[in-house]
Amino acid sequence: MTITKESPGVSRLKRDAVGLVGVIFMAVATAAPITAMTGNVPIVVAFGNGLGVPAGYLFATVVLTIFSVGYTAMSKHITAAGAFYGYISHGLGQVVGMVSGLLATMAYVVFEASIIGFFAYSANDTFKSLAGVDIHWLWFAFLGLALNMILSYFDINLTAKVLGVFLITEILMLGLVALVTLFNGGGPDGLMAYTLNPINAFQTTGLQAGAVGLGLFMCFWSWVGFESTAMYGEESREPKKIIPIATLVSVVGIGLFYTFVSWMTVAANGVKAPELAAEQFAGIFFNPTEQFIGTWAVGLFKILILTGSFACSMAFHNCAARYLYALGRENLIPGTARTLGATHPTHGSPHIAGFVQTAISVVLILAFAAAGMDPYVHIYTLLAVLGTLAILIVQTLCSFSVIGYFHVKKKHPETANVWRTLIAPLVGGLSMAYVVLLLFQNQEAAAGDASKSSFFTAIPWIVVGLAVLGAGTALYLKARNPAKYEVIGRIVLEDTVERD
To answer: Which of 6, 210, 335, 442 has the fewest Cβ atoms surrounding its Cβ within 10 A?
Structure first.
């Protein structure tokens, strides 16, 4: 089924609402550079591949760029708010598509609550350290969720502008500290260029033994959200041109930036960086900032971590709302086309799906709070591990769907070629499968103290349960309601409709 202005029962998102720069801002904000760097790099340095963290990010950049080659090939022919859901349904069939749709939706739904946990923790800490005021983290969590709901109610262009401001400031902060370190010739042991050697991505380097698998997984984790470019295809101008460019720019741009910042962070702290990271965590960023720029910059850094994490939560809110909308407009559950699948008559936003997403996040936050769990140790970490496991599985399936679409189903021979739609997706898919394995092997280390909770034990079962539910739903519809089965993942934008 395709969306046209006259499509009965299908509410369209606002078309031509955002351009190339806006889509890139949305994708990069979802990846959250300042949160990824200050949250993940200390863990990789202290407990992962140590001084080899820049090499780890370089390796991840290469793998994800290869993944993006096939992903962007699909985006030229299929434009849908469900992104992965639509791609996999077309490439691997409706059963696998339904599985991926539920897993991807769940991932983005829990990511907002996860990042709100980090935001609330950071806000509480920032207000205490800078203003001497101790405000309970729950108030910040509710404030963040309310702002996300209000902003997402309007035209997506408004959100893109807000994210753009936050994104530019956090990139400037990270870039400033990194450049000052570079121009100062590094820290006590110089620039340590050897840490960029790709071999270091697969071994521990430094004074403290770590786990290579954990280090690599945390590097890949830092990119979660870059693929959101395709979700805004229906709202972007010339999606066939914009989405492939935005995806590659986001992947390569984020990767090179992460590699440079992590390299300068290691260089600024010297060979003792693993020990310092284990003791001070974000101190490996704050100490060089104070040394090379000044104490005032540390305070600004903390504020930008706060605004950066909020921007990330806002981006995930929009992703989750669009996945809920994509599932709702197919009306697989009677009535959802008029609720989840509805768009605002003026703003063209999936406003009802946004309200539902906010309600789910509020319930998650309250449930964790009622259980006496910490916003950082438990909410941020546990929900991030759950969402990352689900989205990595979906990314793996997406790579193989490219092969199924272009080479098994023989679609669009003018686009298909051995490198772009066969070898690259195969290498990308196998690499992503390896990252999923890394997560399984290192999930206890990634979760830290939160691994002792019963929720952590349930994470694999939640993923398996959703997969079974998705497959069961699709097979039931295939047997009892073939017309609805055919619609699964098939609603796409008219001007990029799949054609034989």
So the answer is: 6
Given pLDDT bands bounded at 50, 70 and 90, which one contains residue 81?
A: low
Contacts of 301 (CB under 8 A, 6+ apart): 173, 177, 285, 286, 289
**Model-level pTM?**
0.85
pLDDT tens digits for range 392-450: 899 899 999 999 999 998 888 888 889 989 999 999 899 889 888 887 777 777 777 77
pLDDT tens per residue, range 9-61: 555 555 656 677 777 777 777 777 888 898 889 888 988 888 999 999 999 99
- According to DSSP, the residues that pair with 18 across neighbouring strands are 236
Q: Is pLDDT above 60 for 495? A: no
